[in-house]
Structure formats: C-alpha cells, structure tokens
Amino acid sequence: MEKRYFTIGMAGHIDHGKTSLTKALTNVDTDRLKEEKERQISIELGFAPLYEDEEIQISVIDVPGHERFIRQMIAGVAGIDLVVLVVAADEGVMPQTKEHLEILKFLGVKNGIIAITKIDRVDEEFIELVKDDILAELQGTVFEAAPFVLIDSLSKKGIEEIKQLIIKKLKEQEMRDAKGAFRLPIDQVFTVKGQGTVVRGTVYEGTVEEGQALKVMPKGLEVRARQIQVHHKPSPKAYAGQRAAINLSGVSKEDLERGEVLVSSEHFIVTRIIDVAIRVVEELEHLIKQRMPIKLHIGTAEVMGRIVFFDRNEIKEENGEILCQLRLEEEILTKRGDRFILRRPSPTETIGGGWVIDPRGNKYRFGEQTIGELEKKKVGTPKERITAALLEAKSLTLPELIKRTALDEETLSEHLQNDEFVLFNGKEYTLQQLIQSIEEDIYDRLQDFHQQNSMKQGINKAEILQSMQKKFSKSLLDYVVENAISKKVFYRREQFVWLAEFSPHVPKNWAKRTENLLAELKKDELKVRYLKDYLSAAGIPDTLEGDLRRFLEDQELIVLLDDQFAYHGDVFKEAVYQLQSATGLEFEVGEAKEVLELSRKYMIPFLEKLDAKGYTKRVENKRVWKNK
C-alpha cells in the first residue's frame, strides 16, 4: 500500500485553545518563541507530528488567531487538507472565527471538524447554545455538516475522539498529487549551526529527494537539497502533503524569505499579472473600487497590487463569481487553479478570495468582450477540460466524460482522437502521460524488488497492483502492465512479472561461496551429504539459505530430492541418462540400485523425483519410462 501524507490545520479566534488542543493531541508545545510564552499568544506557525502508521502520516499546523498575525494564518492554512475549527465554549463564535472561516472557504478547504474547547468552564445548556451559534454561522458553507467534538484539553476529554475522527476522515481522502513537479512555498527560513540555510514549508505537490537540484523562485536561485527532515527526523525524500525542512546548499539565509517557492521544474510561471475568478465576503464593510490597492496572499507569499475590473467600477455586495485581474507590484510563482486570499491594506480586512484562471494575464480593454474571453479561459478548452477530468479520475468511460466535462458526445469523440488520450478495454479513456507515469512507477518498484531479491525471478503481479489500487482502477493498472509486456519492457510468466533486462543471480558477495558449494556437490556425485552440510561448509547464512535453495532449483543448478538431499543438476541429468540407457521400457527398484549403485536412502527419493519431473510413472512395484 502506498503511504499517504496529510497536513491538518488548527484555526479559530485568539485564546480559544488551538495551541492547547495541539499539545493535547501531539504532546508538542508549538509556542516556541520567547514572546509567545510571555504574551501567551501564537505569533508564528507551529508544527507537530500527530499520527503515523503504515498507511498514513499526519502533521498539524497551529495557526495564530490574532488579527495582527493573519498573514501567518493564511500562510499556514494554504497547504492543509483538513481544518479543525476551534471555538471556545465560554465565548462562542468571535470575529476571527468568522474571518478564518471565510479564508478557509476561499482557499477551498472542504474537510473540517468543529472542536468546542474549554467545556469545563460552562454548563451543558450553554454548550448547546454555542452549538446553535456555530451551526448558524456554518449555514450554507462547506462546513455545515462538519461533526462536532467537545474538548477539555487539560483533562484530555474528547482528545482521543477527535484524533480518531481526524484519522478516519483523512484515510477516506485522496492525498495531493505526488507525481507532478515538486513545489514547496517557503514559510520559514533559518540557519542551523554547522549545516547552513534551512527552509521549511508544506509540500504542495510532487516529491523531493536528497541531492536534487532545485530552484528558488521567482528569483531563479539555483540550489541543491543537501538534507531533508520531516518532523526533525532525517528522510531521503519528502512527499506532497508533508511538512518538510530542507537544508539548501548554494544559498544563504539572507538570500531567501517567506513567500518564495522551492521548485524542481521551470514549468511553473513567474508573473505579475494574473486573470482570476473571485468571490467577496458576505458582509463588506467598505466598497471595493476599480484599481483599488489590495494585498494578495497566495501560497505563503504576500504581495501588494491592484484589482482591475472589466465590467464594473465598484463592488458593494455580490454573491456570485467575478472575473477580473490582479496587477502586482512583485513577481509571484503560480499556476492555474491556485487559490488565494485578498485583503484590503487599509483599513485592514479580508475582502475576498478565489482561484487563478490564467497566470499569463495581459492588459485588456474594459467591456463585455473581455469578460467573454475570461469566461472561455475559466471554463477551459475542450482538450483542457478532458485532460483535467482524466487527471482527477485517472480513467473514465465516454458517458462519465460527458458528465464531468459538460461536452457533447460529438465534441468529445473528436478531441479524444488526439494521441494524448488512450482508449483501453474498449470503453475507458485515460491519458498517455498517466500510462507513462504508472509504467515508470511499476518499473521503479520492480527495480527495487530486483535489487533486494536478486535470486527471485519476479514479483506477483497482484502484489504490485494491490499497492496502487487506491489511486488507479484495476483495469487501468492491468492495461499498463500488459501494454508494457507487449513492448517487452516487462516479462511475465504465470502470475510473476519482472523487468525485461533482469536475470536472477546470486548476490555478488555470495557468488564465490555458491560456486564452491556447487563444485563440492558435483564432486560427490550421487553419494552426497546432507545439503545443509554443503551450505554450512560454504559459509551460507541461514537467512539466505531458503532463497538460495529456491534459486538454485529454479535455475536447474541443483535437484532437490527431498528436504535433506540434493544432486548437482548435471549429475542428476547424467544419472537419468545412465538409468534410461541401462533399462527397458520399465524397471524395478532393484534394477535401478544395481545400475546406479545407490543405497535405499538415495534410491527412493531419486525415483520419486523422476515421477515428479515426469520422466517416469509408477505402476505397482515398477516404473515405466514416459518418453522411451
């Protein structure tokens, strides 16, 4: 099973118990700064490991609740997969609760749990009033059906309940894309004595490994990942959804700052003009005016700019989506689909949020024609919509594609002729890039298996596919394997699959000892000692013995008579030839003993092996040759 990585966030008003809840869940105090201890409020993002098993790893971000630290809050929640909205029982919904809720909505965070904390301070009747207050606030949002958990962090009441709920929800959720190009928005930069510059952040997508060449964008600084840590433990790789600290070579702390992005590819776009679709908060305190200064929060970046409308000059209130443009004072790195928050610099308030339609924005004329063009961009071309649907679902039938893309059958059929789309099973479509990606993944798995099990021919096909079936359908995986076999990238015999270029072999450090074992076995001809004696004499360890026995027998270098005795493959073949030449169509045990001069302890297992290999068939007290 492929391991999945998630990061959850604690959000809510100041002093509602986010840090205490995080500590109760993780035994980590995320308030580490001196001023945080003195003022008893969170100023910077706090991080802690929550849970890990063979299937899943979960990290926690504790975000500041104070209005003055909203930038840090946005930087934290921008990369989360689930939010715990913390509301204190003795205060209920407060201004920052509402603002955090708006921010989460704009950032597209859909998975949530409501934690009502400090329940020891109020009676049950008051808790019900707080619940009603929260439900009213959540009405019409993606969190309106979110479960409630009553928490007292000091006595640990509700802690195990909320922990198990978090684990259950995330085990049902898809992880971020680990296949794409690596991207990590930087939220912390610091130095470690003797190590140098370290950056920290949540891996938005892709994978990074030690030694990999990277770039810090938008500056374009070339760096290398010297070391990687996940929760203060060294790790050779970091995956999408994980919190990671990366020690970078080739750059100093002064060269970097929060908001920059660490990437592995130049495919990401650096821009100052982005076409966007936005929504505004429900209760705007002030008008949003044409070309008004705004503060954009995207990833961990905070950039000043102006908002440009093409169909209006101001917004008083608006329930729908508005297509417009942001013109920024500094370059940012972004791509289509990225979520962001908009805030007014003065007076400071969150005014809305949305997603990037096109990071390559140009200057357009005011008017409906521009809105029409932006509408087309927003929806995407038929090819883009098909690609997006298949990237999400991995494989779809034509009826499913019609539903997902809102394209008619004729248009779909026309665009599906493109070589980038592949029909398999006669009914399902997928992307050529996905087939290639899956094939490469299976190739890597087989390569790893061969390196660790050099004496085994291959791995059970079902075992490979089972580990990938959470992400891809069995039919798609089957097609990829069979397609690779037809191209002679993989070979298969029965249920076992292996790389075409692989041949089973004894590990290099045991090859000479194995040669000595075979030489001794051959020298003793038919009157061999126990096989265990040869293995011990050759210095073969017990841990290797089973695999070596199977390998030597599969390669016909030895023939196992039973659990105790084995003949060298050449000796066995010569004995069969000798016995066949000296007997008629059938023979008895006595005749065989005379020909081969063997005692009963060798003779009976030898004859039974002849039966098992199909050379002979036992009929009463005689053996009949099958091919004579």
CATH-scheme architecture of the largest domain: 3-Layer(aba) Sandwich
Name of the level-1 CATH class of the largest domain:
Alpha Beta
The radius of gyration computed from the alpha-carbon positions, rounded to a whole number of angstroms, is: 33 Å
Quaternary state reads single chain
Main sheet: strands, sense, barrel: 8 strands, antiparallel
CATH topology group of the largest domain = Rossmann fold
Q: Specify the overall morphology.
A: elongated
Helix content: 25-40%
Q: What is the number of independent domains?
A: 5
* SS summary, helix count: 19
Q: Helix/strand-derived class?
A: alpha+beta
As a percent range, the share of strand residues is 25-35%
The total strand number stands at 35
Distance between the termini: 52 Å
Low-pLDDT stretches: 31-45, 65-69
Keywords: Cytoplasm, Elongation factor, GTP-binding, Nucleotide-binding, Protein biosynthesis
Domain Tr-type G: 3-174
InterPro entries: Beta-barrel_SelB (IPR057335), EF-Tu_GTPase (IPR050055), EFTu-like_2 (IPR004161), Elong_fac_SelB-wing-hlx_typ-2 (IPR015190), P-loop_NTPase (IPR027417), SelB_WHD4 (IPR015191), Small_GTP-bd (IPR005225), T_Tr_GTP-bd_dom (IPR000795)
Subcellular location: Cytoplasm
